Amino acid sequence: MIKKGDRAIDFQLENQNGKKIKLSDYKDKIVVLYFYPKDLSSGCTKEARAFRDNFKKIKELNGVILGVSGDIKKLHKKFIEKENLPFDLLSDHDFIVSTLYNAYEEKSMYGRKYMGIERSTFLIIGTGIIKKTWRHVKIVGHVEEVIKAIEELKEQ
Q1: Cys bridge to 104: 54, 56, 69, 99, which one at CB 3.0-4.6 A?
Q2: Is residue 91 a part of any domain in this protein?
Q3: Is 44 annotated as catalytic?
Q4: Catalytic residue among 23, 44, 85, 146
Q5: How far apart, in whole angstroms, are the C-alpha atoms of residue 52 and residue 50?
Q6: The whole model's pTM is what?
Q7: Each residue of 70-127: pLDDT tens digit?
Protein backbone atom coordinates (compact mmCIF):
# COMPACT_ATOMS: atom_id res chain seq x y z
CA MET A 1 0.00 0.00 0.00
CA ILE A 2 1.43 3.36 -1.02
CA LYS A 3 1.48 5.78 1.89
CA LYS A 4 2.75 9.15 3.05
CA GLY A 5 6.54 9.34 2.82
CA ASP A 6 6.84 6.77 0.03
CA ARG A 7 8.42 7.60 -3.30
CA ALA A 8 5.70 8.10 -5.92
CA ILE A 9 5.77 5.58 -8.72
CA ASP A 10 6.59 7.34 -11.99
CA PHE A 11 4.30 6.53 -14.88
CA GLN A 12 3.40 7.62 -18.39
CA LEU A 13 -0.21 7.82 -19.57
CA GLU A 14 -1.93 9.58 -22.46
CA ASN A 15 -4.11 12.60 -21.81
CA GLN A 16 -7.37 13.45 -23.54
CA ASN A 17 -5.46 14.60 -26.66
CA GLY A 18 -3.16 11.59 -26.88
CA LYS A 19 -0.17 13.47 -25.44
CA LYS A 20 2.03 11.30 -23.23
CA ILE A 21 2.21 12.68 -19.71
CA LYS A 22 4.80 11.51 -17.18
CA LEU A 23 4.57 12.18 -13.48
CA SER A 24 8.27 13.07 -13.51
CA ASP A 25 7.48 15.91 -15.95
CA TYR A 26 6.25 17.89 -12.91
CA LYS A 27 9.37 17.93 -10.74
CA ASP A 28 8.95 21.65 -10.06
CA LYS A 29 5.28 21.34 -9.02
CA ILE A 30 3.08 19.93 -6.30
CA VAL A 31 1.01 17.26 -8.04
CA VAL A 32 -2.56 16.52 -7.06
CA LEU A 33 -3.00 13.05 -8.56
CA TYR A 34 -6.60 11.97 -8.24
CA PHE A 35 -8.12 8.67 -9.33
CA TYR A 36 -11.82 8.57 -10.08
CA PRO A 37 -14.18 5.85 -11.34
CA LYS A 38 -15.96 7.18 -14.45
CA ASP A 39 -16.16 10.19 -16.74
CA LEU A 40 -19.52 11.99 -16.80
CA SER A 41 -20.95 10.08 -13.82
CA SER A 42 -22.66 12.17 -11.15
CA GLY A 43 -20.09 11.76 -8.35
CA CYS A 44 -17.08 12.13 -10.64
CA THR A 45 -18.62 15.20 -12.23
CA LYS A 46 -19.08 16.78 -8.78
CA GLU A 47 -15.46 16.01 -7.89
CA ALA A 48 -14.13 17.32 -11.22
CA ARG A 49 -16.17 20.52 -10.86
CA ALA A 50 -14.74 21.07 -7.36
CA PHE A 51 -11.20 20.74 -8.73
CA ARG A 52 -12.14 23.00 -11.66
CA ASP A 53 -13.61 25.64 -9.36
CA ASN A 54 -10.43 25.62 -7.25
CA PHE A 55 -7.98 25.23 -10.13
CA LYS A 56 -6.75 28.83 -9.92
CA LYS A 57 -6.03 28.56 -6.19
CA ILE A 58 -4.16 25.25 -6.62
CA LYS A 59 -2.17 26.70 -9.53
CA GLU A 60 -1.25 29.77 -7.42
CA LEU A 61 0.18 27.34 -4.86
CA ASN A 62 2.39 25.82 -7.59
CA GLY A 63 0.08 22.85 -7.92
CA VAL A 64 -0.97 20.85 -10.94
CA ILE A 65 -4.01 18.58 -11.10
CA LEU A 66 -3.97 15.25 -12.93
CA GLY A 67 -7.12 13.11 -13.02
CA VAL A 68 -6.87 9.39 -13.81
CA SER A 69 -9.58 6.92 -14.75
CA GLY A 70 -9.95 3.85 -16.92
CA ASP A 71 -11.95 5.73 -19.55
CA ILE A 72 -10.69 6.20 -23.10
CA LYS A 73 -9.29 9.50 -24.38
CA LYS A 74 -12.45 10.26 -26.37
CA LEU A 75 -14.57 10.18 -23.19
CA HIS A 76 -12.00 12.27 -21.33
CA LYS A 77 -12.16 14.88 -24.07
CA LYS A 78 -15.97 14.93 -23.94
CA PHE A 79 -15.88 15.26 -20.13
CA ILE A 80 -13.38 18.13 -20.29
CA GLU A 81 -15.39 19.97 -22.94
CA LYS A 82 -18.74 19.48 -21.20
CA GLU A 83 -17.46 20.56 -17.77
CA ASN A 84 -14.85 23.10 -18.95
CA LEU A 85 -12.08 21.34 -17.03
CA PRO A 86 -8.73 23.20 -17.17
CA PHE A 87 -6.56 20.17 -16.28
CA ASP A 88 -5.53 16.92 -17.94
CA LEU A 89 -7.40 13.66 -17.60
CA LEU A 90 -5.23 10.60 -18.12
CA SER A 91 -6.39 7.30 -19.57
CA ASP A 92 -5.44 4.21 -17.57
CA HIS A 93 -7.62 1.83 -19.59
CA ASP A 94 -5.62 -1.24 -18.53
CA PHE A 95 -5.61 -0.09 -14.87
CA ILE A 96 -1.85 -0.57 -14.47
CA VAL A 97 -1.19 2.80 -12.82
CA SER A 98 -4.37 2.57 -10.74
CA THR A 99 -3.23 -0.84 -9.52
CA LEU A 100 0.29 0.45 -8.71
CA TYR A 101 -1.28 3.19 -6.58
CA ASN A 102 -3.68 0.71 -4.94
CA ALA A 103 -6.65 2.64 -6.34
CA TYR A 104 -8.00 -0.32 -8.35
CA GLU A 105 -9.84 -2.69 -6.06
CA GLU A 106 -12.86 -4.85 -5.53
CA LYS A 107 -16.00 -2.81 -5.07
CA SER A 108 -19.60 -3.72 -4.34
CA MET A 109 -22.83 -2.16 -5.53
CA TYR A 110 -26.28 -3.59 -4.81
CA GLY A 111 -24.62 -6.82 -3.69
CA ARG A 112 -22.68 -7.26 -6.94
CA LYS A 113 -18.88 -7.37 -6.66
CA TYR A 114 -16.68 -5.96 -9.41
CA MET A 115 -13.25 -4.41 -9.92
CA GLY A 116 -13.00 -0.64 -10.31
CA ILE A 117 -11.19 2.52 -9.34
CA GLU A 118 -11.72 3.64 -5.78
CA ARG A 119 -11.77 7.42 -5.44
CA SER A 120 -8.27 8.27 -4.14
CA THR A 121 -6.00 11.33 -4.13
CA PHE A 122 -2.24 11.66 -3.69
CA LEU A 123 -0.33 14.85 -2.98
CA ILE A 124 3.17 14.52 -4.45
CA ILE A 125 5.97 17.05 -4.13
CA GLY A 126 8.49 17.68 -6.88
CA THR A 127 11.10 15.37 -5.42
CA GLY A 128 8.66 12.52 -6.00
CA ILE A 129 7.67 11.99 -2.38
CA ILE A 130 4.05 11.39 -1.42
CA LYS A 131 3.18 13.94 1.25
CA LYS A 132 -0.48 13.04 1.80
CA THR A 133 -2.96 10.38 0.71
CA TRP A 134 -6.73 10.24 0.78
CA ARG A 135 -8.46 6.88 0.29
CA HIS A 136 -12.17 6.25 -0.25
CA VAL A 137 -12.62 9.98 -0.80
CA LYS A 138 -15.87 11.66 0.14
CA ILE A 139 -16.42 14.42 -2.42
CA VAL A 140 -17.89 17.13 -0.20
CA GLY A 141 -15.04 19.15 1.31
CA HIS A 142 -12.30 17.05 -0.28
CA VAL A 143 -10.79 19.74 -2.51
CA GLU A 144 -10.68 22.11 0.45
CA GLU A 145 -8.70 19.46 2.39
CA VAL A 146 -6.29 19.15 -0.55
CA ILE A 147 -5.78 22.93 -0.67
CA LYS A 148 -5.20 23.06 3.09
CA ALA A 149 -2.58 20.29 2.79
CA ILE A 150 -0.81 22.18 -0.03
CA GLU A 151 -0.81 25.38 2.03
CA GLU A 152 0.70 23.49 4.97
CA LEU A 153 3.43 22.13 2.69
CA LYS A 154 4.20 25.65 1.49
CA GLU A 155 4.64 26.80 5.10
CA GLN A 156 7.26 24.13 5.85
Answers
A1: 99
A2: yes
A3: yes
A4: 44
A5: 5
A6: 0.96
A7: 999 999 999 999 999 999 999 999 999 999 999 999 988 888 998 999 999 999 998 8
